[in-house]
Amino acid sequence: MTKVLSNLKPQPLWNIFESICEIPHPSGHIEKIAAFIMDFADKNGLEAYQDKIGNIIIRKPATLGYEDRKGVILQSHIDMVPQKNSDSDHDFENDPIKPRIVGKLVKATNTTLGADNGIGVATSLALMISNEIEHGPLECLMTIDEETGMTGAMNLEPGKIKGDILINLDSEVHGELFVGCAGGMRTSAYMDYDEEDKLDNHKIFQIAVKGLKGGHSGVDIHLQRANAIKIMARLLSSLNEKIDLRISSINGGTLQNAIPREAFSIIAINSENENTLKENVNAFQEIIRNEFSSVDPDISISIEPVNKKVKFMKEKVMSVLLHALLGCPCGVYRMSDDMEGLVETSNNLATINAGNGNIKIQTSQRSSVDSRREEISSSVKSIFELAGFKVLLDSSYPGWKPDLESPILGIVKKSFIDLFGQEPKITAIHAGLECGLFKSIYPDWDMISIGPDIYFPHSPDESVNIATVEYFWRLLQEILKRIPKK
User: Where are the alpha helices (DSSP H) in 26-176?
Assistant: First the structure.
């Protein structure tokens, strides 16, 4: 593969990142990237091993004169979110990501880039092989499957990591120092149902909701973008009030931590209502485009005839499904009382797969207040249980409570001011970071999270700002120089 990032600075970091792009590493399929990292460590004379769950720990001794400093852990995760446009035939388990430079950004081609968290991985590896940086004892902790349940962090063994200070490299805003994060939970709803055969004198259509921006269900939830599943539920409910509608299937979204960008439904109507159907779909499209004109201007709703044999949900099943989807809260639920502009609690109606006699719906709740996370999860659970679904709550993980007196916060803040001549913003993030889980296993760790500007992670629009990667690199070097003695 032709190298396209080799002229960017710092070159070692970008070269490693491009190598990472060449290796398929979606969540759940990290064997190849793990083998690459272990081989990289071996070739560069670094001590490295994998723990029982598959996390990678790499160690490097202190440089001369820094042996008495506190140990620093550079932490990242090795999996990426696999999202692509519907017209892309990319196979995330086998095909390389194709990065490209677009102005001041690096983007992929019709897929997620994997800067979340490939830039963090590349940065820590580049720091480990550099002979020009002064530092105390260094460790890299690279966890597995962060994006699908924080599997690596949840199974991290106590007593295995030697360092005192953890720098999480999974934040996505240059100039902001993150000292807290939301906790999360996944609530899934299931239903089996009996199907019935086609209606008399009917015609089958596929409705497609496409063109939405989507994004990260934590980082981007405050942008109030459209949710493709919600739009589909609204449209089908509206149509059902006007014509005799039957539903065969509804499918939308792909991941519990991504705002759904597309949704598809197979429906049937009486043939004589075809013009009414098309008129109402077009009218509804204009309503939705007007509602989201500022934040999601490219929404499209199409309808095409389908020539295939399908079965349908009974009217009662269709009714309870649409009511549950309409009733499920979606988006920002509450803003933080303590940090201006920070989302405290949210819910993402993430995926639906309904058809062939069964329905599965995934939702994801986040909150920086554990009791409110429980509240929003209970609300979602209640709605689906009232509709007759079986509901399962799982993948719960704790938040990370901010410590504004943290010593590493003081060091990073001073380093940032000295390097860039301005005060960084000290904040928390609504996304889930692994720091909350680490704190439960290593309660004495002093932690902070930083990163370059990464835009629209978890969507095919994902990009990373080139200049801020270099700033990130410089900041980390300065921090390592200033780590205090034990």
Answer: 31-43, 115-129, 151-154
Q: Supply the DSSP symbol for 277.
A: H
Separation between Cα atoms, residue 240 and residue 248, nearest integer Å: 14
Q: Has 146 been annotated as catalytic?
A: yes
| pTM, full prediction | 0.81
Active-site hit among 18, 116, 145, 146: 146
Domain map (residue ranges) of the chain:
11-182+399-481, 185-395
Active site residue 79: yes
Residue position matching structure tokens 């597309």: 262
- Which class would CATH give 11-182+399-481? alpha beta
| DSSP structure class, residue 255 | -
Tally of CB atoms within 10 A around 371? 8
Structure tokens at 261: 């960008």
CA distance 332 to 346: 4
- The H or E element spanning position 203 is strand 202-210
Question: What is the chain's mean pLDDT, rounded?
Answer: 95
* 18/371 Cα distance (integer angstroms): 42
What DSSP line would sit under 160-191, residue for residue? ----SEEEE-----TTEEEEEE-EEEEEEEEE
Sequence-distant (6+) residues with CB within 8 A of 66 are: 134, 135, 136, 483
Eight-state DSSP code of residue 62: P
Q: Is the pLDDT of residue 199 over 80?
A: no
Beta strand 165-168 with 72-77 is parallel
**Six token digits for residue 53:** 């769950």
CA distances from 401 to 168, 348, 369, 446 (A): 15, 22, 9, 12
Q: What are the backbone angles phi and psi of residue 449, rounded to the nearest 5°?
A: -130, 130
Return the pLDDT at 221. Answer: 95
- Which of the 8 DSSP states describes residue 70? P
Q: Which amino acid is at 365?
A: Q
pLDDT in tens, 38-68: 999 999 999 999 999 999 999 999 999 999 9
Span 207-250, pLDDT tens digits: 999 999 999 999 899 999 999 999 999 999 999 999 989 999 99
The helix (run of H) or strand (run of E) holding residue 479 is helix 466-481
Give, as one character, the DSSP assignment of residue 49.
E
In whole angstroms, what is the distance from residue 138 CA to residue 228 CA?
A: 44
In angstroms, the CA 25 to CA 95 distance is: 10
User: Hey, how many other C-beta atoms are within 10 angstroms of the C-beta on 307?
Assistant: 6
Encoding tokens for residue 222?
């405050």
Q: Which residues pair with 48 in a beta bridge?
A: 58
Q: Which amino acid is at 243?
A: I
Among 18, 79, 145, 344, the active-site one is: 79
Q: What is the CATH number of domain 185-395?
A: 3.30.70.360
